[in-house]
């Protein structure tokens, strides 16, 4: 592994040299040139600028990865896509991962609820406090994903809670979900846990559905321990296997777009790399998103689909037609259906949640048609947030209409990923859009 880290550092050095040469290239005078020569000079200058930008990105990514692999200690969050929150699965597992010269080790990785309540942690962001303060989000790791802003809220909040909980100030945060675990196995190879063979094709269905059937009627702590063992086994494979760091980066980058892996570091070099690689979880002003937050302590989210059809009746108007369908099958184990009777739901498989919507900066008004009671509303960083409660019977499909009036026009909006499984889709003018991409509002 030391050779691989050296190679990353060498890549960073070469990219830095190429960056400096691109920026400092002397293209000669600009005055008195023939039109053809002047046009060619502009093209070369533009291309050199693009080379400079790309080599800067490569340098930052290589330097940050090398720094992380050299050594550090990070809070490890395991998100469960079967129980969703805003922008990710609920962080149901938490522990510590230590990296030393490319060797990975996991310590005290277990259920988040075992660390509840966290005493003495402050809420690091005023918008988090104003929007979600009634839930006391600083006392429970399971409430970390009440915002999708990982870079300036979730990451720092996690470190603050771990400091209060454990006494240590760690170097950063790594958040992964079940889809990413399957992707990592594709790079480092399969594992065996208590006789269960898991690889890139079997890990996800096992984690999202099969484990609940296997442990139905069994002490829930046995199932929770299985999750910890699986994560630890994957981490061991990272240390033992003959794998290429660049292959792992490629696998993580693929899942970063869908919001399934997020990294935060107190080190500026590493944080710059996470921005370049798209795993920092930033949310800018020109962003939007639609999310379901599980309220029923169930594992029904893989059976609840969410889609958004966007209409643009005016230059500064948007209409979101949101379709939510509950396709939970009959006969699911009790752990998957959750305590439906205690929540006043009609039967097992009924879904209780919150529907949350991010609206871009400059949204003059946003409203449900017909009107619905808002449980949460106001700014979340640069975007606006509205939240309403939603109950969906098993087999029910519901359509909700949301109208946005903007005080500015946008050429496009970035769709903040929800990390749902299956991935939700957006449509506009007959075109399909994936989360993490740009919703094109104005054709060139």
- The portion of residues forming beta strands comes to 25-35%
**Structural class of the helices, strands and pairings?**
alpha+beta
Shape: globular
Largest sheet: 6 strands, mixed
Overall pLDDT level: 88
CATH class of the largest domain: Alpha Beta
Count, helices: 10
From the N-terminal CA to the C-terminal CA, the straight-line distance is: 47 Å
CATH architecture field of the largest domain: 3-Layer(aba) Sandwich
Helix content: 25-40%
Produce the secondary structure layout.
Layout: H1 2-23, H2 35-70, E1 71-84, E2 89-100, E3 103-111, H3 126-132, H4 150-166, E4 172-177, H5 178-188, E5 191-193, E6 196-198, H6 203-214, H7 220-240, H8 245-256, E7 261-265, H9 268-277, E8 287-294, E9 304-314, E10 317-326, H10 334-337, E11 351-359, E12 363-368, E13 376-380, E14 383-392, E15 397-406, E16 412-415, E17 425-428, E18 431-434, E19 438-440
Parallel strand pairs: 1-4, 8-16, 9-17
Antiparallel strand pairs: 1-2, 2-3, 4-7, 5-6, 8-11, 9-10, 10-15, 11-14, 12-15, 13-14, 16-19, 17-18
């Amino acid at each position: 592994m030391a050779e691989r880290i050296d190679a990353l550092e060498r890549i960073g050095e070469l990219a830095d040299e190429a960056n400096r040469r691109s920026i400092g290239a002397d293209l000669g005078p600009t005055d008195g040139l023939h039109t053809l020569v002047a046009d060619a000079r502009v093209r070369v200058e533009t291309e050199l600028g693009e080379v400079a930008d790309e080599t800067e990105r490569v340098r930052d990514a290589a330097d940050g990865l090398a720094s992380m692999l050299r050594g550090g200690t990070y809070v490890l969050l395991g998100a469960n896509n079967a129980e969703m929150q805003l922008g990710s699965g609920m962080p149901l597992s938490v522990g510590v991962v230590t990296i030393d010269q490319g060797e990975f080790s996991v310590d005290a990785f277990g259920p988040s609820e075992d660390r509840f309540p966290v005493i003495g942690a402050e809420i690091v962001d005023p918008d988090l406090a104003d929007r979600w303060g009634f839930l006391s989000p600083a006392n429970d790791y399971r409430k970390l994903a009440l915002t999708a802003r990982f870079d300036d809220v979730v990451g720092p909040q996690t470190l603050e809670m771990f400091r209060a909980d454990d006494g240590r100030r760690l170097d950063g945060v790594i958040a992964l979900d079940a889809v990413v675990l399957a992707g990592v196995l594709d790079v480092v190879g399969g594992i065996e846990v208590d006789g269960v063979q898991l690889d890139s094709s079997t890990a996800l269905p096992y984690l999202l559905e099969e484990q609940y059937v296997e442990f139905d009627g069994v002490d829930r702590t046995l199932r929770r321990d299985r999750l910890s063992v699986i994560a630890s086994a994957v981490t061991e494979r990272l240390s033992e296997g003959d794998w290429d760091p660049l292959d792992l980066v490629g696998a993580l980058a693929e899942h970063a777009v869908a919001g399934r892996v997020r990294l935060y570091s107190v080190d500026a070099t590493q944080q710059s790399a996470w921005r370049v690689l798209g795993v920092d979880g930033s949310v800018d002003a020109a962003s939007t998103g639609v999310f379901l937050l599980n309220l029923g302590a169930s594992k029904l989210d893989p059976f609840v689909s969410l889609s958004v059809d966007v209409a643009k009746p005016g230059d500064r108007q948007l209409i979101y037609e949101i379709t939510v369908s509950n396709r939970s099958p009959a006969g699911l184990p009790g752990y998957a259906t959750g305590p439906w009777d205690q929540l006043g739901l009609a039967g097992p498989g009924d879904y209780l949640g919150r529907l949350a919507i991010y609206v871009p900066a400059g949204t003059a008004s946003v409203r449900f048609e017909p009107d619905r009671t808002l449980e949460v509303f106001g700014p979340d960083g640069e975007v606006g947030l509205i939240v309403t409660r939603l109950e969906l019977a098993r087999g029910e499909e519901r359509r909700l209409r949301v109208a946005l009036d903007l005080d500015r026009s946008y050429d496009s909006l970035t769709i903040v990923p929800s990390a749902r499984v299956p991935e939700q889709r957006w449509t506009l003018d007959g075109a399909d859009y994936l989360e993490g991409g740009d919703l094109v509002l104005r054709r060139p």
